[in-house]
Amino acid sequence: MTSAGQRILLHIFSSTYSAGMESVPFSRDDIRKAAGEIGVSVPKNLGAPIYDYRSHATIPEIESTAPDGKKWVIRSKASDRYAFELASWSYTDFDQTLLTTEIPDATPEIILAASRNDEQALLAKIRYNRLADIFLGLTTYSLQSHLRTNLPNGAQAEVDEVYVAIGSDGKQYIIPVEAKGERERIGIVQVEQSLAVCEMKWPGYTPIAIGVQPLSDDCIAMFKFGFSEGGSSGEVKKIGERHYRLASHAAAN
Question: How far apart are CA 174 and CA 144, in angstroms?
């Protein structure tokens, strides 16, 4: 069933788009205006329809206008301005052909008992089990959680967690982590923004982005993202994926 937020975004897109366009700009005021024009309530949080579209919503009427090999995504252009733009991908999909690696679960029982089934619980499991180290082959350290800041264009960006890391050759990395629930998807826009934040705040480090998402209660998918050719001016691509199952020590052996 199409939600009110999806109907609002479809109305905004359809009112502006014409064949051949690669960018369809709009503002938060357009969200208010569109809600009135189609007769639905104005969202209490005007950013909610955008977040939903970036995380899990699909609008076939919009997707059908994209050229072959392209997807429509919503990028932030300023503090209250956005644009539908074309990208080569929009959301990550799980690689169903991957083997699952079993890891002894080092999460303290008191944390497991008290934690909720949310992104923070997932991030805690990543930390306690050193999964970032295992996945990347680096020594990583959690630096900051819930980093919220403004990008140079005025758009607000939030990073779920930031790690610093060092490789065997002494090279230092800054690693933003994007965590999602089972019914959400990791989108290109969140990854782009996370990398932009880290390049802005830690310019002397090499950025690598990680996405984490549960496949089940005890299985976690991890994604690695980086820039295609052209460095930070290139497009963000998925460059690695692994699946880990947290098991008792006996089972992992």
Answer: 11
Amino acid identity, residue 58? T
For residue 180, give both structure tokens: 């999602």
Evaluate whether residue 41 is within a structural domain: yes
- Strand, helix or coil for residue 159: strand
Task: Specify whether 158 is located in the same domain as 197.
Answer: yes
For 158, the enclosing helix (H) or strand (E) is strand 156-166
Q: Lowest mean pLDDT: which of 54-63, 68-77, 186-195?
A: 54-63
Checking if the pLDDT of 27 tops 70, the result is yes
Half-sphere exposure of 83 (CA within 13 A, CB side): 10
Identify whether residues 106 and 72 lie together within a single domain.
no
Task: Report how many domains make up the chain.
Answer: 2
Is the domain of 118 the same as that of 242?
yes
**Measured torsion, CA atoms of residues 66, 70, 72, 74, in degrees rounded to the nearest 10:** -150
Q: Count CA within 13 A, CB hemisphere, residue 110.
A: 0
Alpha-helical regions (H) of 27-76:
28-38, 48-55, 60-63
Mapped onto helix, strand or coil, the DSSP state of residue 39 is coil
Those residues with Cβ within 8 angstroms of residue 197's Cβ, 6 or more apart along the chain or in another chain: 147, 149, 151, 157, 159, 176
Q: What is the pTM of this model?
A: 0.87
Quickly count: other Cβ atoms within 10 Å of residue 193's Cβ: 25
What type of residue sits at position 244?
Y
Our CA dihedral for 207, 93, 119, 78, rounded to 10 degrees, sits at 60
Give strand pairing partners of 178: 211
User: If we measure between CA atoms, which residue out of 146, 145, 135, 221 comes closest to residue 182?
Assistant: 221
